């Protein structure tokens, strides 16, 4: 059993894993934005706002918050309209 455990490659440090995940997410958002630009359809994108709360206590939580925040920024930059819903009330941020 010990030999089997020692044969498992080490987990990369969180910063390397976060960098790889961020690059993958960046590519996914890029593909989504390319599809949006090529489409004649009206798109409605719904996402969580993660930057208004407390700083997540775990490194993985902070990576998630930062990655989603960057994705939201890219989507909002390309959008014609951006609406933030707070307590059921629309706050128009763009458009």
Q: What does this 3D model show about the protein?
A:
The chain is flat. The protein has 95 residues and is mainly alpha-helical. The chain starts with a helix and ends with a strand. Helix 2 packs parallel to helix 3. The model has no long low-confidence stretch (mean pLDDT 84). A hairpin with a 2-residue loop joins strand 1 (82-86) and strand 2. It is built from 3 helices and 2 strands.
Name the descriptors.
mainly alpha, two-stranded antiparallel sheet, flat
In short:
This protein is mostly helical and 95 residues long.
Layout of SSEs?
Elements: H1 2-7, H2 14-38, H3 59-78, E1 82-86, E2 89-94
Which of globular, elongated, flat, extended, rod-shaped describes the shape?
A: flat
Radius of gyration: 18 Å
Coarse structural class: mainly alpha
With helices defined by DSSP (H or I, 4 residues minimum), what is the helix count?
3
What value does the average pLDDT take? 84
Q: List how many beta strands DSSP finds.
A: 2
